[in-house]
Records
---
Amino acid sequence: MPGRKRKHQKNRARESDYRPPSREPNTGKEIVDEELVKSGAIQGARADSFSDGGFGCPDCSWTTPKKGNSGIQALRAHSKVHVRDRRAVVSTLTIQAAVLVVAVAITLTPVFLQIGLSDVVSDIRFYVPVNTELILGTTVVASTVLTVSVLLTGSQYVMRGKRRWGFRYTWSVRLLVAYMLLAASLKWSEDGQDIWLHWLAPVLVLWAAWALIGTDVALTLLAIKRGTFEPRNQRKLLKSKNEITNQRIGIFRRSVQVRIRNGLIVLDKLSKRRRNSYNQLGVGETRLIKRSQQTRLEREEEQRQKLKRRNLKSQRDQGRRNRPDDASSRGV
């Protein structure tokens, strides 16, 4: 008996410890920018109607719920992301500008030396037998190959983020720099005076291609180091959370199947990305049904004829309504 009494008391104590969950307090959940409140854009809202909700980055949509000194430190840590992005772009542009300046300096140095020290320039210049047509043809081919190589490897690296494309891009840029300096040094040869301008034009096009893709490659490399790189050619899949979403997907699947069977959707003419989406949906094996296509075409033709007859009828009715007005106006 004493044991049962103690057990009964414990059960009563557990029941007394249980409390029904309290209702959620009716507090605000909306977070807005302080600038909106101070400017009075939110009608009827004052500064004392809000409490501290954290911090946000002025350069992007990043926010943190931390307050006080912790929020300031989190914002300071996030600001380093923009600093590194800016540093990567500036470093790339600096290297590109430096290569261009060095090439231009190598090219123009003989011109300035010839103005002041013509004898010294004649001693410095070297003689190399140059076939003008061969050099121009080689220049066009080399510039085209390097331009395509830089743009192709750079775009593939930006899209895929693979190390092998980064390696190929790096070597393409190294060949580009060496080629630019070689083109600039042609000004120092005696027989190269007549063709260096023709050689320099394709080189500048090559440098412009490097400048076009260089900053994107630098930002991609930085994103890979951070672990935040998302390939542009990825296929992200989503999973429904409830039965209602499943039903909506089923309705959409059946509608796509109907449109494929009656010819409104032709799978062979779709893009690769959309075709993969339909394969994932489970309608990739659906085929065209000639009878359904013919029925659809007949129905569309019938609708067009009905619309045409309706328009003609409305035009005749409009003409009939306008005739008495015209007659009365002529009688007056």
---
Amino acid sequence: MNNRRDNWTVGEILSAMTGVEYPEYILRVVGQLQQWMEEYAPSQDAPQGEDPLAALFEGPFEIDSEKFFSQLEWVDEYADLLPNVQKPSGHEDVIVLSAGPTDFEDSLRMAIDYAALFNRKVCSRVWVISDTFIISDVHRYLSHIRALGQQGVAFRFLLVTPWGWTEIPLAAEPTRGNRISWRNAKKGGTPHGDDDLKRDDRLTK
């Protein structure tokens, strides 16, 4: 049986280039973010005698961004990290972190501006790693993301929580099986079996 195809569309080639695997440094960043989120998340155990319901509205989730980013200086060897107080080196990959008090829309604009303007001759992959996903904000920039894709810049969005993470397709061709994989592995690790890889079959309908 010969399944070889001689003709490929530009979209198919770009989709193949984006791949479904994650570089080790991306998994490490995700792991550090998860660990950091766990450290700063409000304790689930309310002090004895205190109303558990009231405790849910106290001690807001706060993040010391400066401290967190100081722990990610190693990333510069592999990718440009934004936001950053230092001028990026100009890698093919850029990581835009959007966590804690960071404005989600500002992070999307930063990612697009950097890829399209400030590093347009070099950038080929944009990784937005965020603890938030706002559909209305994403929809506002879909045309920009599609334009970057047509120019060969892959736009990858990773939604991260302390308990797991997933990649959300943005203006791209459907993923294999039209399914989103929820990765439970801690510290950015990849699943090692079916029990670790949770799929939502509702997304296929």
---
Amino acid sequence: MEGMKRKWIYIVTGVAAWMAAACTKYPTDVRKGIPSEFTEGWLEIYGQCYDSINQGVVALDLYSDGLTLDENHCMKGTGYNLYISDIFVEDSQLVCGTYRSDTTAERFTFLPGKAFDDIPTGMYLLYVADNQLLSIQLLDSGTIVVSDTTDNLKDMRMTFYFRNVYGNTATYETHYQGALIPWQKRPRK
């Protein structure tokens, strides 16, 4: 009987330690969800970089308040980074319209979030606290509505709609309004 009590004490202590570690690993800020607005945006321009696809490719790299890029393009601070790679466009420009997650590589589509060898691609959300990456959330479906590209991307208005964010099945909406900083990337191979 004494051995059984000791076994249960070890089990309860182990579960309590595991729960405390889980709470430490994922701060409550991560569980609150995505911010309603992103405040800094980069437009990565790849051009027509895939041999088998006749579309230009751009990526959006957006940052919430408190998180930014330094001069070496390293994230600094605490906040969220929304990254959407492989947005298929004509002439390497975002234009007004509705873009949807899809794997067809047609104009007005972008790749959904996927992980290849534990490396996120497509559409995903990072949570960074004190310059340290704490969370990666793949976003498996969504749309981007670009409603204005006034003055050559100096006043870009976009609304993002996502499903299955942090395990929720409801649609989540976030926004970006402001200039997109163009960043010419090397062609992909």
